[in-house]
From TrEMBL:
Species: Absicoccus porci
PROSITE patterns recorded: PROKAR_LIPOPROTEIN
Domain of life the protein comes from: Bacteria
Name of the protein described by the UniProt record: Lipocalin-like domain-containing protein
Amino acid sequence: MKKRLLISLFTILFLLVGCGSAKYANSKYLGTWKATQAEAYGVSISTESLVGEFSMDLKEDGSAKVTIDKDTYKGDWEEIKNGIQLKDSKDTMDFKAKDGHLILEYSGATITFEKQK
């Protein structure tokens, strides 16, 4: 009897853990986003000249990998009203969704991200 109860409890536990791991399985924000446009103090500039390569990979479990130039950072993301919020141990950045793009306004610069296919 105890063995069946334990098996039942472990089965329920694994089902609950399995359901929780795909927090954003149906999110429109999932996938890789790459910086395609940048503007600083009203002047359009290439994203490479501003920050080098800038991309982010948003996973369905809420984790994120961000590449800036040749450095890679790990963090978490979540859906917020009108976009996403990206967090690491030091910073939090809000990206606004607009016309199928994600827009980051940070330190006087506006960077537009496009979802990669």
